[in-house]
């Protein structure tokens, strides 16, 4: 991985130099360090973020968070309250302007609980390497089943 190393980001996957893969790695690093402005700068102005894909408590209509203002609001709702993130990427497939990563996102929450989210995260970038879409495929029920005291 050629982004700032972090014990909170474990990359146990192929690591060829692909623009979408690099953008995903920068995204994980910024989230783990709680660097909101750095994270937002990775997105194109008209980007769409779906995390998870479809209707959820983060996106009741399931249409995704469109544009930087909506993506910033997603950070405030879904990322800011988390005390600690750990990303373990087990596999990564990069093709053209896209990348699909398979991994586990572990979160530590206030109140002393932890949860693990198994997912596939698909990133697409534009010619400048900015994220145009991020779609995280995971199931809320499976994550909730992992909630435990730390």
Question: What do you see in this structure?
Answer:
Strands 1, 2, 3, 4, 5, 6, 7 and 8 form an 8-stranded mixed beta sheet that branches. Helix content is 24%, strand content 41%. Strand 5 (98-109) and strand 6 (113-125) form a beta hairpin. By secondary structure, the protein is α+β, with helices and mostly antiparallel strands. The chain has one domain: Nuclear Transport Factor 2, Chain: A, CATH 3.10.450. The protein is globular and about 45 Å long. The protein is built from 4 helices and 8 strands; from the N terminus they run βααββαββββαβ. The chain has helices at 19-32, 36-40, 68-79, 140-144; strands at 9-11, 43-50, 65-66, 82-95, 98-109, 113-125, 131-137, 148-149.
Can you give me a brief rundown of this structure?
The protein has 150 residues and is an alpha+beta fold. It contains four helices and eight strands.
């Amino acid at each position: 991985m050629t982004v700032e190393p972090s014990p909170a980001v474990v990359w146990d996957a192929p690591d060829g130099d692909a623009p979408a893969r690099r953008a995903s790695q920068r995204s994980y690093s910024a989230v783990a360090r709680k660097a909101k402005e750095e994270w937002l700068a990775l997105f194109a102005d008209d980007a769409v973020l779906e995390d998870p894909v479809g209707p959820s408590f983060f996106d009741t209509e399931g249409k995704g968070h469109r544009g930087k203002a909506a993506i910033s609001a997603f950070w405030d709702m879904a990322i800011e309250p988390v005390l600690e993130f750990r990303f373990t990427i087990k596999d990564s497939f990069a093709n053209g302007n896209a990348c699909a990563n398979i991994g586990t996102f572990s979160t530590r929450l206030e109140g002393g609980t932890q949860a693990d989210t198994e997912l596939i995260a698909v990133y697409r970038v534009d010619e400048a390497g900015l994220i145009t879409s991020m779609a995280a495929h995971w199931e809320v029920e499976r994550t909730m089943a992992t909630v435990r005291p730390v």
